Amino acid sequence: MTDKNSKGIVPINFEGYRVVKLNYEVLDSEDVDDSKSELSARFGLADDNLSGMVELTTTFVNLPKKAEGLLTIQGKYTLDKMLGKEKATQFLAQNGAAMLYPYVRTIISVITSFDDQDVTVLPSLNFIDAFEKSIKKNNEK
Predict the structure, then answer these.
(1) 12-140 adopts what CATH topology?
(2) Over 70: is that where the pLDDT of 133 sits?
(3) What is the distance between the alpha carbons of residues 49 and 34, in angstroms, rounded to a whole number?
(4) CA dihedral of 51, 46, 125, 121, whole degrees rounded to 10
(5) 74: closest CA among 60, 59, 87, 55?
(6) How far apart are CA 83 and CA 77, in angstroms?
(7) Could you read off the pLDDT of 88-123 as tens digits, one per residue?
(8) Which of 90, 113, 118, 123 is the most buried (most CB within 10 A)?
(9) For the whole model, what pTM was predicted?
């Protein structure tokens, strides 16, 4: 999806990220539940469709350590002016989230490695499939 357009320009550029929220704790109780692990994404385009933001929030759990955490990270992007709103939205949702997710995985691995050698590693994801499922789900509403 990051193919160059007819002018040879990449349609989306990653400008950087920032951590919005980070929480990690080891719990005393047995209440650690692996079903709490989830990933959610939000994104938005500027009115001119030239810039956008993706926000990923993930809750993560490490059952053996009885630990859980939450990370919210925002990525900023610029988009090619030749893209219309629909294409810009698609590039931002698919590619923006895919570009940001490795930072999420790395941050969680580093944070959980400070506790002990049992590091939490998030799985790889296919954001194209996730985007298509999201579109289908929204169309059913």
Answers:
(1) Bacterial Protein-export protein SecB (3.10.420)
(2) no
(3) 38
(4) 80
(5) 55
(6) 14
(7) 998 898 899 899 999 999 999 999 888 877 787 776
(8) 90
(9) 0.79
**Residue 115 DSSP label:** T
pLDDT of res. 117: 79
Give the pLDDT confidence score for residue 46 in this predicted structure.
Answer: 93
pLDDT at 118: 77
Task: Name residues whose C-beta falls within 8 Å of residue 2's C-beta, 6 or more positions apart in sequence.
Answer: 10, 11, 12, 91, 95
Contact 42, 74 (CB under 8 A): no
Query: What three-state secondary structure class fits 39?
Result: strand
Coil vs helix vs strand at 83: coil
In the sheet that 12-26 helps form, which strands lie side by side, from edge to edge? 12-26, 67-79, 51-62, 38-45
| Beta strand pairing call for 38-45 and 51-62 | antiparallel
pLDDT in tens, 1-54: 444 544 556 789 999 999 999 999 988 777 666 666 788 888 899 999 899 999
DSSP single-letter state for residue 38: E
Task: Tokens for 96, please give them.
Answer: 């923006």
